Amino acid sequence: MRKLLTILTLGLTACGGGGDGSTRTSSTSSPAAQNLQMAPMPAQVLSPTYSLTNLTATDSSGNVFYLAISDTADAGTASFDGQMANYNTLGVAITENTNPNPVLSLGAVAFYLTGPYSPLGEEITQNGVTVETALLTSFTPPSNLTVGDSGQLDAISYYNTSNVLIGNATQTYSVAANNATTVLVTLTTTGTVNSAATSDQETFTVDTSGNVVLQSFTLTVNGEVLTFTNS
Predict the structure, then answer these.
(1) Looking at 64-149, which runs of residues are DSSP E strands?
(2) Is the overall model pTM greater than 0.70, yes or no?
C-alpha cells in the first residue's frame, strides 16, 4: 500500500569568490508541498448526494447554459427488481440564457444495497415520464483512491418500458493529482442506447477525510459536448 508522499526540502548552494577569504553561503527554499497521492474511497463518490445550481457551460456559439443538479438520499427502502433497496433521487435541469424553459429535464431513482455498497439499477425519467430502466452489474470498488489508478465500476444494461434491451454502457473511474489536500476522481459512463452513443462524466475532489465536492459535469446538449463547472 502506497503512503502519502513526504514534503521535500530543496537546498540551493551558491559559491563566493576564490582565495582564503572565500565564503560559502547557502539558502534553503520553503518546503514544497507535494500533491496528495491517496485518499479513501468514500460512499459519497459511489452514491453521491449534493444539490448545486451554479454550474455553467458555454457552447461554440457563445450561448451560456446553466445546470441545476441534485442527488438526495431518501429515507426508507423501496422495491427494485424483486428486492428491497435503499435509493437516491437524482434531478437534472438545463436552461439556456435566452430561453427560460428547460432545454433538458432528466430524473432518476438509483437503487442500491448497503454494507457493503452494491448498486442495483436506476429508473430514468425524461420530462417527467419514465423512459427506461438501467440494471447494474457492479465491480468491487477500490478501498482507496490512489493517483494514477483507474478501473471499471459498473456494467449497465438499459431496458425500455416494455422490458426490451435497448443498450449497454460501462462506468469507469480514474484518479489524478489535484493539490496538497485533495485528489481528483473522474467517473465516466459510455455506451449505446437506442443505437445512439451516450456518455457523461462527473469529476469530484476527495480529501483524506472522505469529503467530496463535485467539480464538473460533462454531457451532450443539443448535439454538443458541454462541461459544466462548479464556479
Answers:
(1) 64-73, 78-80, 83-96, 99-113, 118-126, 129-138, 144-146
(2) yes
